[in-house]
Amino acid sequence: MNKDIIREYFSIPNLLSYFRLILIPVYLLVYFNAEEPKDLVWAALVIAVSGLTDMFDGKIARHFNMITEWGKLIDPVADKLTLAAVALSLAFRFPLMRLVFALYVVKEAFMGVMGLIMLRRGSKLNGAMWYGKVCTAVTYLVIFVLLLFPELPPWAQTLLISLQIAVTLMAFVLYAAYYRRAWKDAKRKKA
User: How far apart are CA 162 and CA 99, in angstroms?
Assistant: First the structure.
């Protein structure tokens, strides 16, 4: 196999991204086969391993100069699919999570479409913005609390999920404002 192909597709960071993709069905299997609330700890553990590999793949890629174009694509895809799978699975147990899942799909679809449009115009988003990182952190916090403490009182569940909705909406609005500015800048540069 060509060394360039191996470097592009089979670097350690990319292998970690593939591993995260494999963990999605593992998580779903563990989550939906949990017979008692304490069994959900295993589902939380799978998500924790996924989160750790996500953290390490970026650090490894930057430290050892293993950043690849494929890695720039597969890493966020693995992140988004993981969060979508978890939000959807939690929607079966917590009805308000259906709104989180719908909002997440709309936000990510918007960002994907706008990212492609801006790329065609010669502009692109250079990594996640601070509000995207805050949104991801809050999402993981809510996920872990709901998985580790599934018998929280309904008011606490509602409060946590409402916090996630509010932070996701904030990130969506701020990304929309970012893309609006980038659109105007690209138009101005073209003129």
Answer: 10
Buried b (16+ CB within 10 A) or exposed e, 79-111: bbebbebbbbbbbeebebbebbbebbeebbeeb
Distance CA 143, CA 78 (A): 17
Task: Please report the DSSP string for the chain in residue order.
Answer: --HHHHHHHSSHHHHHHHHHHHHHHHHHHHHHT--SGGGHHHHHHHHHHHHHHHHHHHHHHHHTT---HHHHHHHHHHHHHHHHHHHHHHHTT-TTHHHHHHHHHHHHHHHHHHHHHHHHTT----S--HHHHHHHHHHHHHHHHHHH-TT--HHHHHHHHHHHHHHHHHHHHHHHHHHHHHHHHHHHHH-
Q: Per CATH, which fold does 1-93 belong to?
A: Four Helix Bundle (Hemerythrin (Met), subunit A) (1.20.120)
Write out pLDDT tens, residues 18-47: 999 999 999 999 999 999 988 999 999 999
Residue 33 is encoded by which pair of tokens? 């086969």
